[in-house]
Amino acid sequence: MKIENIPNINYLWAELIIEELLRNGVSEFCIAPGSRSTPLTLAAAGSNKAKKTIHYDERGLAFYALGMASAGAGPVAVISTSGTAAANFFPALIEASKKKLPIIFLTADRPPELRQTGALQTIDQPGLYGKYVRWDFDLPVPDPDIEPEVVLTTIDQAVFRSKYPMAGPVHINCMFREPLAPGPGKNTNFSNYKIRNNWEKSQKPYTEYFSDSETEGVNNREEIIKVIEGIKKGIIITGKLKGPGEKDKAVELSKKLNWPLFPDIVSGLRNRDESGNIIHYYDLLLLSGKELNEQIDGIIHLGGRITSKRWYNFIKGLSPDKYITVLDHPLRNDPLHIVSHRIKSSVSGFLNTILPSLRQRGTNPLTEKLKKISSGTGEIIDKFLENKEINEIFIARKVSNLIPDDSGLFLSNSMPVRDMDMYSSINNRDVKIGGNRGASGIDGIIASASGFTESLGKPVTLIIGDIAFLHDLNSLDFVKKGGNKLIIIVINNNGGNIFSFLPVAEHKTHFEKYFITPHGMKFDKAASMFGIEHKKVSNKNDFSVQYKSALAGKKSKIIEVEVEREQNVAAHRELEEKIREYLGKN
Questions:
Q1: d(CA 205, CA 17)
Q2: C-alpha Rg value of the chain to the nearest Å
């Protein structure tokens, strides 16, 4: 960049901010329109190296950035104007914090003399996001008496803190005085404005950060191996795993110990074939749990939190002597307060350290029995669905059967992620799983799935409920403009179906109005407004036909599935009862 060509001090600082982000590897810029952020927006718009996404809704924009980061695009930069525009970032920022995703939020702001004066579109933005950011900084108003290196080192620090020591969102609050447009201002003479270290002629960040690499291994290795060797009958359970290497190592551990491996849907192991000791329907096997209650004395938990509520209820009742958790961050992740050994390490680093020293264990009758029972449970699901009307179990099962290799699957919270966790089939395909399982809200799902799709660069299927769909209608604009195909399967059961599975459902007086919140809406007009193909189905054959058609097509598509809520709840309960009967006989 050539400093002498920049029109005023606001634009000098904005150009420095954008250029330094680019030099730090931040190439994706998500921008919401606004006045106070004009210098930042135009600086990003004028860069041919910056990839830009523009969206009118800051809340959806932030979730879109979240989806991009979750698919591996991060760090991602997000730009907004001042006031409640910045506040609309908060839900996605919380999710990014919980999921440990590197996102840099740049909020424009009024100068100090307009704070707490009643000036329009002015709120207290410094510290707005509280403890959910890894780092925040209130950047001064651009001033020629402040050295430009201050701007550069601030950006360098922000990018570093978004990744280390624990990834997550950072917030830079950028104050600007008028003029906001790129015309000449009071400070336009930058002929003597030089940046040290020959920065202008370089392509590197002003300050380059070098961090210790993640320790490939663990401290007290011998002690941990001794603890594992002391467990007579154990279980391995896997949350979110990173890449095929960690998945393969987790399976290798299960084979070495001959312990059953319980895979959460987000682990990437839930749909693998029968090789190894994977217990695909472990959640449903816990409907009984009789085989496990008295035998298990230790757990190895690899990766993040588990979707299954039955797992946590089971563990709470079991209270094993040893519960080993392996995560690559220092946070507790112990909702039941039962973890005996907390290992801060990547899963691959931990397994690379201990696997060579663990003795190979012989055949485990419990593992063999659980594998057999799990396989039988899958057969019960298929047989049960044969004579049933379309329901949410069928949708999860059919999508997992049909979704192609090397594609993506994004699961909304509430029932979609739970049904896929419990009922998906074994397809042995390499499908990238996404979902907002940090704070587990239903807001921003369409936007997140759209960002996930764009960053992944492959076709993605989104399964979402009607209430979550209504939450995020604005984000259909991302689907309309997206360069990659997103197939949205929206399950319309006219309300919040998950409440039907909770104890509050027994309280009939206010249940329907205050919890189910029936809306009576169909989504064809919303799809039409955004120019997205829409098909409504109400039976199993139509669903299969439309999903196969969407997979074969080149454009995004919305498949709206009408499901009768009470019949759907009854189907879940009937199937669970059949599985209980089956477990009781085995």
A1: 11
A2: 26
Amino acid at 459: P
In whole angstroms, give the CA distance from residue 171 to residue 106: 6
86 class by beta-carbon count within 10 Å (0-12 exposed, 13-18 middle, 19+ buried)? buried
Q: How far apart are CA 123 and CA 525, in angstroms?
A: 37
Tally of CB atoms within 10 A around 541: 9
Dump pLDDT digits (tens) for 177-230: 999 988 776 656 676 678 888 898 899 999 999 876 554 556 778 999 999 999
* Residues 91-105: tens digit of each pLDDT: 999 999 999 999 999
Q: How many CB atoms lie within 10 A of CB 2?
A: 8
Asked if residues 36 and 217 have their Cβ atoms less than 8 Å apart, the reply is no
Residue pair 11/39 in contact (Cβ under 8 Å)? The answer is yes
Q: Partners of 76 in the beta sheet?
A: 28, 103
Contact between 247 and 269 under an 8 Å Cβ cutoff? The reply is yes
**Neighbouring C-alpha atoms within 13 Å toward the C-beta of 2:** 2
Tell me how far apart the alpha carbons of residues 487 and 485 are, in angstroms, rounded to a whole number.
Answer: 6
> What stretches of 312-389 adopt beta strand conformation (E)?
322-327, 341-344
Asked whether the predicted pLDDT for residue 417 surpasses 70, the reply is yes
Q: Decide: 212 and 70 in contact? Cβ < 8 Å.
A: no
Give yes or no for residue 245 having a pLDDT over 80.
Answer: yes
- 59-87 pLDDT, tens digit per residue, is 999 999 999 999 998 899 999 999 999 99
Cα–Cα nearest to 540, from 519, 517, 571, 516: 571
pTM of this prediction exceeds 0.85: yes
Rounded-to-integer distance, Cα 60 and Cα 448, Å: 8
Q: How many CB atoms lie within 10 A of CB 481?
A: 15
Average pLDDT across the chain, whole number: 93
Distance CA(293)–CA(274), nearest Å, equals 24
CA proximity to 399, closest of 436, 425, 362? 425
Beta strands in 328-406 (DSSP E): 341-344
Query: Which residues contact residue 557 at a Cβ distance below 8 angstroms, ignoring those fewer than 6 apart?
Result: 485, 487, 488, 532, 533, 534, 535, 546, 549, 550
Give the SS3 label for residue 318: helix
The two tokens of residue 162 are 């978004």
CB 425 within 8 A of CB 265: no
Q: What is the DSSP string of 484-546?
A: S-EEEEEEE-SS-GGGGGSGGGG-HHHHIIIII------SHHHHHHTT-EEEEE-SHHHHHHH
Distance CA 559, CA 547 (A): 8
SS3 467: helix
Dist. CA 573–CA 469, nearest whole Å = 25
Helices then strands, each counted (H, E), the chain: 21, 17
pLDDT of residue 501: 87
Instruction: Say which amino acid occupies 473.
Output: L
36 and 111 Cβ atoms separated by less than 8 Å: no
Average pLDDT over residues 387-391: 94
Three-state DSSP at 462 gives strand
